[in-house]
Amino acid sequence: MNDSYLNFVNSPFGARLARSLGLPKPEVLNRYRADRPEFDGLVAIGAGRQPHLLEALANLVTSIGVTSVAHESAGLWVPLANRHGLMTGRFEPAESGSHGKLTALLFDASGIEDSSQLEPLHGFFHDTLRSLGKCGRIIVLGRPPEACATPRQWTAQRALEGLTRSLGKEARRGITANLVYVEQGAENGIDSTLRFFLSPRSAYVSGQVVRVGVRAGADALPAFDWNQPLEGLRAVVTGAARGIGASIASVLAAEGAHVIGIDIPSARDALDSTMRQLNGTALAFDIAAPEAPAQIAAALDEQGVDIVVHNAGITKDKTIAKMTDAAWQSVIDINLSAQERIDDALLTAGILRDGGRIIAVSSISGIAGNLGQTNYATSKAGVIGRVQSMAPHLRARGITINAVAPGFIETQMTAKIPLTIREAGRRMNSMSQGGQPVDVAQTIAWLAHPGSAGVSGQIVRVCGQSLIGA
Ligand code: NAD
């Protein structure tokens, strides 16, 4: 769907008018394009005391080919960084003419053990934020508070959330800010996550807190090519005929997966056409039908599957006093119970291979609740519960399960929302605009990535840091 306000204020006349009237000017977000370099520019790196992730960061910046520069406030860290050959020079703050020069700010806060040690965060972001260009990236790295040895350390690490979320709200200009908590021992498993948050692929993901844990099993990660990481893998996507599901199918196929798209029989033509373009396979099933789990399992049995994306979903909005039992039941059944039944069928028979991925589509309605959506929010909060409860059980098989929770995404579902509510939904986030289906799809592709084996039980919002919900 077209956001005509965003297009208008980014035209020369509209930009002048918006400036003179003091109207918000949402940035045209820099999204991933295969014909442009994914990473470039100058990345500033800062650190608190005794950072633990320096080596991993050094390897990352080298492997993606960006130039890095240390910030003075890193203090103790500078000699350490020099030892790793990370330095190319010292960062010059904005006052000395480097405005907009940086493409990303990375801060390793993993060694901070006490609130009295938080000061370098102020020094670093105070000096660098104004030099971060449009659609730049901020990533703060820490240790999961709940795994900290002392209450003081837990407190200091938890404090990073407030900083990161505030940076996202202050930075504007299409800049994202995210916090990655890295469990001790997971240092060598953070590349797919850091690449995602540094890349234009995460254009609409901001204000998120993600945990990377030690992945299950001692085996080395399967070899993969960063350009085609899903090569040789099979992915099932429900609700693939249109909207977000069609975009998920397309991104997973572009990453090398063979996609099996499922949608209702009445959407067969659209499904066939989407799958034909992707050299995928179309299965016309109603996922809520009692026979669907067995039918899907039978269709996948021979070759198995590596990635399952539960995207199909419906809304039937009414306040609860006016909501019929049928409207309640169908939303819960399609959005939640069908996922449980399908996963049971695929997991019990081993059709979803060990080391596989389950990714479910929740919603910020499931986090914050929404007027007129008791059925929908119940189903989407249930999806979050499923992810959190199943993650530990699936660990032994090396299967990860995560959810994405989209905010306002421009699709046929949101086109049905009345104009004034739609306009509010679009603007009430740090990006002042709705997201695109591809934003959700790229987030799912990161979670499906072979390198994301240590990311499980996470709920990642794709909402431009919506003001709704925590
Ligand atoms: P959409 O209505 O455009 O597409 C949903 C697809 O699911 C359709 O192709 C539909 O035919 C299919 N589907 C519905 N019921 C099915 C069933 N019983 N069996 C098989 N397929 C079925 O919606 P969308 O906006 O692309 O949403 C996709 C997912 O994202 C949904 O789970 C939705 O709840 C979620 N979501 C969307 C937004 C948004 O802003 N668009 C926000 C939060 C969450």
Describe this structure in words.
- With 470 residues, this protein is an alpha/beta fold.
- The chain has two domains: 31-212, NAD(P)-binding Rossmann-like Domain (Rossmann fold), CATH 3.40.50; 234-462, NAD(P)-binding Rossmann-like Domain (Rossmann fold).
- The protein has 16 helices and 13 strands.
- The strands form two sheets. The chain has a seven-stranded parallel sheet with strand order 9-8-7-10-11-12-13, with helices on both faces.
- Helix 8 packs across helix 16, helix 10 runs parallel beside helix 11 and helix 11 (325-348) packs parallel to helix 13.
- The chain is globular, with a radius of gyration of 22 Å.
- It starts with a helix and ends in an 8-residue tail after the last strand.
- The model has no long low-confidence stretch (mean pLDDT 91).
- Nicotinamide-adenine-dinucleotide binds next to helix 8, strand 8 and helix 14.
